[in-house]
Design a protein that fits this description.
- With about 150 residues, the protein is an alpha+beta fold.
- The chain is about 25% helix and about 15% strand.
- The protein is built from four helices and five strands.
- The strands form two sheets. A three-stranded mixed sheet has the order 1-5-4, covered by helices on one side. It has a two-stranded antiparallel sheet with strand order 2-3.
- A hairpin with a 2-residue loop joins strand 4 and strand 5.
- Helix 1 packs across helix 3.
- The chain is globular.
- The mean pLDDT is about 90.
Length: about 150
């Protein structure tokens, strides 16, 4: 499902009062996307959000339109964590960036380069297991799922 980067059109998150929601990383094979390297520190923080801070996890399993992979995920310790279902939400001031968890795959396997404002937001955002992040999510009535923990 394609949504242009930095668009106010979102897949599932309705803006909480006082916040704007911007979409990032809703790619589609029919639309070109920016390519380029991203900092390893950004990739690591993005990985943490895509495995330990997942929202709306019941949106179905999505095949990567660029490589055809249905088993998109990462190894976290001794557990394989699927990263092709759900969203991540990155708060930054009065903006929340909403991205599919597939964004990690797009960045690391297909060299998608998200907008610099998103990269900066990920670098500033508390990690999903930190209390500051969880407190923010509770304040807007949301919760996250940590797929690295055993079921």
């Amino acid at each position: 499902m394609y949504i242009a980067d930095l668009s106010t059109s979102t897949y599932s998150l309705q803006p909480p009062k006082g916040y704007s929601v911007l979409s990032i990383g809703w790619l589609d094979e029919l639309y070109p996307f920016p390519h380029g390297p991203t900092p390893p520190e950004f990739q690591e923080r993005l990985r943490e959000h895509c495995t330990r801070g997942v929202h709306a996890p019941m949106m179905g399993i999505h095949e990567c339109q660029f490589c055809g992979n249905w088993c998109v995920g990462v190894q976290c310790g001794n557990k394989w964590v699927m990263t092709n279902s759900g969203e991540i939400w990155i708060p930054d001031g009065d903006i929340i960036y909403a991205a599919p968890v597939m964004i990690y795959h797009y960045v690391t396997d297909h060299e998608y380069r998200p907008p610099d404002v998103f990269i900066g937001a990920v670098m500033r955002c508390p990690l999903p297991y930190e209390e500051k992040y969880q407190a923010f999510m509770r304040s807007i009535g949301m919760r996250t799922y940590d797929w690295t923990h055993p079921s």
